[in-house]
Design goal:
Length: 477
């Protein structure tokens, strides 16, 4: 999931054909930049001319000004003879949209040499703003000039970077974003969520959210503010149910309208459950908020400082293996938390930390264990009333003090083993359990062999009966 759309197509006429590969992406670190790379391949033995048009650039009617041609003197532009266009148009209400881009071909006709591949790049910058004083023509004209200037600046910057650098910047940004993530064991139980649905939904959400930390146009103060929001999770998903229980929340439709509605629902849900700081932080914060929501993870603060993280989940719900990767605790500290159902059907926690000064303890608040990059194992304990099954903090003293704060009516005990019928439903789709494939192969062979010998025995008896009857008739005659 690297933010790329790739289309393959075969164009064929009566005598000619070409193959076309189109790579399209909205740049992750350059706001509003749409990059289109098209590879034309002519497999025939003769040259072919094709007509190429880009309607949004060549025929888009603007309300406030005619389409202008940008003079391009950039050495980074491999096809400087093509036309550059820029124009503005008011959309619904008070939204002004400005577009700048370059055509594939200066004449609209491209010649493809025989047995050759022709590569073309197209850069298009989209910029929009809400005009507060649409009735004031002087203000409107100034806004249009400012927006066009922004588009021209963005185009020149992209041209200077070059197509290879643009691609690497984009894919690297997505790779860095996916350093944090979630994985869960596959389930065949009805209405269960699996990794493909969860991560595809998460991909759609992140595609709708900009990243201040990755944005090349962000100022130092904006980056600093985003980091402040990222390190102050506040009450994000404090005392809330984990969203793995709500499969409908993860059903993003296939149409654009359905996707937008699903993303809005998720972001509204995060806002409702106290994750506003994470949302303000941008894509990195939204990713962290979604990860917290999946596992019932939350942070506790005191005097505007995070003092510990809790893993709030009912032990009875831990009937699948799942893993959280790089949960951000502080500026440069990340936690990995895994839930593993062992051979005895008991859930076990595996925790590691990128820093060596963090401690963890289980629900029984036993002696805190020093965490490191090496995985530490914690048992899942059952408390009455239910409390968090894991606490993590950078202060051993704080975890020790929780014994006086968290009250248990009964002594915490090891959580019961998971119901084997529930585990069977996840593994096999039903509660009857499963048998190895070799068992069914042997059973099928036995059944076939039995029927073969049965058929042979019946056939032999029939043959003997017919033969005896024939000889008896000959003897009587």
């Amino acid at each position: 999931m690297n933010g790329l759309l790739i289309f393959l197509n075969l164009l064929q006429s009566l005598a000619n054909c070409i193959t076309l590969k189109e790579t399209l992406y909205v740049h992750r670190t350059r706001p509003g930049l749409l990059v289109q790379e098209v590879s034309f391949y002519n497999p025939t033995d003769k040259n072919i001319e094709v007509s190429v048009t880009q309607d949004i650039l060549s025929s888009w009617a603007t309300e406030h000004s005619p389409i202008e041609h940008m003079k391009d003197n950039s050495e980074a532009d491999a096809d400087s003879g093509t036309k550059w266009h820029i124009g503005s148009k008011t959309l619904s209400k008070q939204v002004l949209l400005t577009v700048a881009g370059r055509e594939f071909s200066r004449t609209g006709i491209m010649e493809l040499p025989a047995k050759k591949t022709v590569l073309r790049h197209s850069l298009t910058v989209f910029d929009y703003t809400v005009m507060e004083n649409k009735g004031d023509k002087s203000v409107t004209q100034k806004t249009i000039r400012d927006r066009k200037s922004r588009c021209v600046k963005a185009v020149k910057s992209a041209l200077h970077a070059g197509s290879s650098d643009l691609y690497e910047q984009h894919t690297l940004a997505w790779h860095q974003l996916w350093q944090s993530g979630f994985a869960i064991s596959d389930s065949k139980a009805p209405d269960s969520l699996n990794s493909d649905v969860i991560n595809s939904t998460l991909y759609y959400i992140l595609s709708h959210v900009s990243s201040t930390l990755q944005d090349l146009t962000s100022s130092p103060s904006e980056v600093s503010q985003a980091m402040t929001y990222l390190n102050k999770p506040r009450a994000c998903y404090h005392n809330s149910h984990h969203t793995l229980q709500f499969s409908s929340l993860w059903q993003i439709g296939e149409t654009v309208e359905a996707m937008n509605k699903g993303v809005d629902t998720h972001l509204s849900s995060l806002e409702h459950y106290g994750c506003s700081n994470y949302i303000k932080a941008g894509a990195e914060g939204v990713l962290q908020a979604v990860l917290l929501s999946l596992g019932g993870l939350s942070f506790r603060e005191s005097n505007d400082k995070v003092v510990h993280m809790e893993f709030n989940v009912d032990p009875a719900d831990l009937h699948r293996d799942y893993q959280f990767t790089n949960i951000r605790y502080a500026d440069k500290t990340f936690l990995n938390i895994s839930v593993i159902v062992d051979e005895s059907n008991h859930a076990v926690l595996h925790v590691s930390s990128s820093a060596d000064n963090f401690y963890g303890t289980d629900a029984g608040l036993a002696e805190p264990v020093l965490l490191s990059q090496k995985t530490q194992t914690f048992p899942v304990k059952l408390t009455k009333p239910l409390t968090a099954i894991l606490y993590v903090s950078d202060s051993k003293k704080h975890l020790d003090s929780l014994r006086k704060i968290v009250q248990h009516v009964e002594v915490p005990v090891l959580a019961p083993a998971q119901d084997h019928r529930v585990l069977a439903r996840h593994k096999h789709g039903h509660s009857y359990g499963g048998l190895p494939a070799i068992f069914w192969v042997i059973l099928a062979l036995l059944i076939v062999t039995f029927h073969f010998f049965l058929f042979k025995m019946i056939f032999s008896e029939l043959c003997k009966s017919d033969s005896g009857h024939y000889y008896r008739r000959r003897a009587l005659s």
